[in-house]
Design brief:
This protein is mostly helical. The protein has one domain (2-126). The chain is 62% helix and 6% strand. The protein has helices spanning 2-27, 39-52, 60-64, 79-99, 101-108, 115-120, and strands at residues 67-70, 123-126. Helix 1 packs across helix 2 and helix 2 (39-52) crosses helix 4. The protein is elongated and about 55 Å long. The two termini are 17 Å apart.
């Protein structure tokens, strides 16, 4: 549920950016619109980097559903770990969704962890 909430937030940010680019594109005779496809990945990566890299280390969806991401020692991830986690997330998810690995793999293991969680040895916990 937290991932869906984060996805909807990103979708809203992309919509606002797309509307802004469309308006500016009209006044610049189509020059600004040429860079629009490059904006979507930047918005997604920036959202996760800034929210996971913040003081709390959680996204808005995670804070709404009271979920936290920790390493194997029950510590918050440092900046290097967060960067690697986000890179793995954005590399694994598109391929995993196409092949259904991202959906089946967490359901097939006992700990309900994704591939990037196994690589970095991270886990999600509920916070009070």
């Amino acid at each position: 549920m937290a991932s869906i909430c984060d996805f909807l937030i990103c979708l809203f940010l992309i919509l606002i950016t797309w509307l802004t680019i469309t308006i500016v594109d009209f006044f610049t005779f189509g020059i600004v619109g040429k860079g629009a496809p490059f904006i979507v990945p930047i918005i997604l990566i920036s959202y996760y980097l800034f929210s996971l890299g913040s003081q709390k280390g959680i996204t808005l969806g995670m804070s709404l559903f009271k979920v936290n991401l920790l390493d194997s020692k029950n510590q918050k991830l440092n900046i290097k770990q967060l960067l690697i986690y986000n890179l793995l997330f954005f590399l694994v998810m598109p391929i995993g969704i196409i092949l259904l690995i991202s959906i089946i793999f967490p359901l097939a293991n006992k700990k309900r962890r994704c591939l990037q969680d196994y690589v970095l040895n991270t886990k999600f916990i509920l916070i009070d």
